[in-house]
Amino acid sequence: MSKTAISLEVNGRASEVWVSPNQSLLEVLRTEAGATDVKLGCGEGVCGTCTVLLDGEPVNACLVFAVQADGAAVTTVRGLARRVTCTCCRRASSSTPARSAASAHRAWS
Ligand code: FES
């Protein structure tokens, strides 16, 4: 089966990958784009384990063909985690002793 080049922006990083017409976005994210934080659950669109944001809209990556995502921005859980700073980290950044605690917390997450 012939492959097609598609462009994806995964968590802000642009990449071009070659995909088969029948490859799911989930498979391509994991194997070609290095987004191993996207997980396979049921593979049938039921559990939501594979949910990613495709141009800001939640989709089940197991049900989307990769070619349908050509030119789209994909945000995975890892990408969301970068955008969100928890309340304790925000509070900690204002005081020096707590700053190291915040750094330790970020290292864990
Ligand atoms: S793996 Fe369950 S919805 Fe995609």
Overall strand count: 5
Arithmetic mean pLDDT: 86
- The CATH topology of the largest domain corresponds to Ubiquitin-like (UB roll)
Outline the biggest β-sheet.
5 strands, mixed
What is the CATH homologous superfamily assignment of the largest domain? Beta-grasp domain
Judged by helices, strands and strand pairing, the structural class is alpha+beta
Anisotropy-based shape: globular
Range of strand content: 15-25%
Report the bound ligands by name, code or SMILES: FE2/S2 (inorganic) cluster
The CATH architecture category of the largest domain equals Roll
Query: How much helical structure, as a percent, in the residues?
Result: 25-40%
Overall number of domains:
2
- The rounded Rg comes to 17 Å
Number of helices: 4
Major β-sheet strand ordering: 2-1-5-3-4
